[in-house]
Amino acid sequence: MQLNVPPDLETLINKRLSSGGYESVEDVLRRALEAQDAEESWAEEERRALSAHIEEGYQQAERGELIDGERARREIQAMKDDWRLSKR
Fold first, then answer.
1. How many CB atoms lie within 10 A of CB 27?
2. For the chain, which residues make up each domain, given as ranges?
3. Cys-Cys with 60: which of 14, 38, 65, 84 at CB 3.0–4.6 Å?
4. pTM
């Protein structure tokens, strides 16, 4: 397969090659496509997880299991604080 690439893409490929981290044009393209594939897989997983959370929240609301805004803010803040501590 041969590809014709526009000058801006050729510049990016050459930049990667000159960095020394890639052995060939094929290597640059392979890594770029693998990264894109991984990103798309992650995004799809995140979309599914988000949909599941939305559905769970909807079901909770239907059952009357709601909390007020202030409590929600406190719980979210606590989650953020826990996350920050875990990153240290």
1. 13
2. 7-86
3. 65
4. 0.52
